[in-house]
User: What shape does this take?
Amino acid sequence: MEDNQPRPPWQRSNQRKPARVPLTQELIVDTALAVLAEEGIEAVTMRRVAQGLDTGPASLYAHVSNKEELHELMADRVLGEIPLPEVDPAAWRAQLKDLLSAQFAALVRYPGIARVVMAIMIPAGPNLLRLGEVMLALLRAGGLSVRHAAFGCDVVGMYVKAFAQESSEWRGGLADRPETKRRAEELNAYLAALPEHAFPHTVAVHELFNEGTARERFEFGLDILLDGLAAKAE
Amino acid sequence: MEDNQPRPPWQRSNQRKPARVPLTQELIVDTALAVLAEEGIEAVTMRRVAQGLDTGPASLYAHVSNKEELHELMADRVLGEIPLPEVDPAAWRAQLKDLLSAQFAALVRYPGIARVVMAIMIPAGPNLLRLGEVMLALLRAGGLSVRHAAFGCDVVGMYVKAFAQESSEWRGGLADRPETKRRAEELNAYLAALPEHAFPHTVAVHELFNEGTARERFEFGLDILLDGLAAKAE
DNA sequence: TTCGTGAGACGAACGCCGTTCGTGACACGA
DNA sequence: TCGTGTCACGAACGGCGTTCGTCTCACGAA
Assistant: This one.
C-alpha cells in the first residue's frame, strides 16, 4: 500500500504533509469495504471511514452525499465483482444457478452488506443493472414469458438476498464470541426442555437447526425455485 | 385510550401525579407499536417511546434490557396476532398458504417490523415458537421428511420475511412523498433512456416493475415454492 | 510573476441516539 | 415506626450523521 522509495528532493520540497492523497469516491468506497470486512457493517460509520483515510468525517461529504449513498456504492461494488456469463440458452438453468450462487458468495464475503442490498429499493447502480439484465436474459432463454421472467427475477433475487442476509448476520454474530454462543446454548437447553406434547415437531427438528450448512439449505430452496420456474416455461 | 370518567374521591386524594400508570413491559410494547404504526420504524427510539409514556428513557430499562429486546418483543407480538389453524392433513397446502399470507399481511401492517424479524437470528419468542411448530406440522402432514420439513420451513419463512421487508419498506418509503417518488421518476426516465442494445430485457420489462401488486408477485413465488415442496413429498 | 478564484479539506459544532449512574420517592413487612 | 428494596427518573457520557464556515492551495488570466 505504501510507497517507501525515497522521493526526488524537488517533489518533497514543496509538500508539507508528506503523502497527501487526493481522496476520491472510489478510495472512500475501498476504505469502507475494508472496514466492513474487518469490523463488520455497523463499524462502517462516516467517522470510522474518515479515520481510515486520516481525515475528518466532513471531508467525505464532498464525494458522497450520504451514508446511505455510500452503502449503495459499496453494494454495487460488491455485486460488480461477480463475473457475468455469456448467455447459453441450452444451459440457462445451470448458468442461472451458478450466477445466483456467486451472488450469494459475494454477499456473504462482506458480512452485513446483504442488509444494505435488501434496503436498496431501486437497483440503479451500473453493476446491479447489468446483473439484472443477465438474469432476465437467462430466464427468457429458459422459455418464460416476459411477465414470468420479471416476477421470477424478482423472486429469485430476493431469495438470494434474504438468505445471504440471514446467513451472514448469523456468521457475523457468531464471530463475536460470547453473546451469540450463549444464546445458542440457551436455545438448545430451552428446546430440549420444551413440553414435547405441545411442540412435538419443533423438538424433533431442533438438532437440524445446528446441522446442515447454510449453503446446503440455500441450495435446497434454490433448486425448488428453479424447478418451479422451469415448469412455467412454455 | 383515555379514561374520562370522574374518579371516586378516595382514589384521587392520595395521588399527587394524577394518572400514575405502573409502566409494564406490555405497556411499553404497546406504545412502541403505536409509534411504529404512526411514524415508522426508525421513529421507534427509546426516547420516543418513553415520551409516549410521559417519562424519560431511563425508565424503560427496568422492564426492557435493550432496544434490541424491545424490537424482538414487538416482532413477537405482531406475529402473535395471527390466528393459527387446526392442522387438517388433507388441506395442508391451502392451510400453509393461508398461514404464510397472514404472516405477510401482519408484517406489512406494521411497516418496518419485517426488518426486525429478519434480524432475529433465533426465533425464541413464545409466539414465534408456536408459529414454527404449526408450519412444521403442516409440512409433515404434507408428507415431507423431517429434514425436508425443517429446510422447507426455513426457506418458506425466509421468503415471507424478505418479501414483507421489501414490500413494506417500499410502502413506507412511498408514503413519504417527495424523495421516493422523485427517485422512481428518475429511474423511469433512466430506464427509458437506457441503450436498448445493451439492456434489451431490462427495457422490455421495466414497465412491469411498477405494475403488478406486491401481493401478486408474492403469491407467484409462494406458489412456486409450495409446488416444489409438494413435489418433495413421498 | 502576480493575483484572483474556485474547488476541496477539515475543525467545530448541533442535535440526535442508546445506555448508565446515582438519587430519591414510595409501598410494605418487621 | 422504621428499615428496605423496588422502581421512576434527571443528568450525563460517548458516539453518531450532518452542516457550516474557514482555510489551503493549485491553476489560469493578466
About this structure: Confidence is low (pLDDT under 50) at residues 1-19 of chain A. Residues 45-47, 57-58, 61, 66-67 of chain A lie near DNA strand D (CB under 10 Å from a C1').
